[in-house]
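Suppose you are handed a protein chain with no further information: no name, no annotation, nothing but its sequence. What can you learn? This example shows the usual starting point.
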Amino acid sequence: MLIGIIYKIILLFPLIKSFFLGRRNSFSAQNYLFIYFLLTFVNEWLSFIRDQLNTDVKVGVQYHMYFIFCVLFFHFFYSFRLKYLLEKISTGVTILSLGYILLFTNFLGNDFDKKIGITITLFYIIISMLWFYQKISFFDEHKITDDPTFWISTALLMWSCFFIFRVTPMFFFAKNDYEFLQFLKIGQNIINIIMYSLFYISLIKYQKQINL
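A reasonable first move is to predict its three-dimensional structure. Written in structure tokens, the prediction is:
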């Protein structure tokens, strides 16, 4: 699918940007986003290559492990941005998310468990909304759009709102309306492109902060 290939090529841009930004300054200056981009890039291209070799291959475990990594990474990412009670709420949400995945889902199964997909979307929505609440409640002199986290939180929120709509009825459409399921898959790739374009903007904001 062409749009899927375009999305995976788009992934290269924030990956390369974060690499050179990290080499020139430090990877901690961008809060180690390079690690997230690298693992995402490897995960997506590995899935694509495996699908070309065998269309019946199941990548449930692969994506389950990737989503667990995402929960851990973005907890780490936001732990430096959320303060006081909000940081504690974020930690609680992370523990609940991981606990639910490990105890109540088939995260080691070959078939994708939609409960894990729903969990990651709820995690993204809550943690990004916590940041927005903090940013709005504690006013500072800086424009919100100058903050790199604004673009990351917007991207996560947008992606989650679409993904939860796609993943919830996924198996129903797979049996009853495969064409609509494919339409949703195309839509997801478009959302992914927008998401990582917003991530790229966040890297530009990090670069401006470093150069100040």
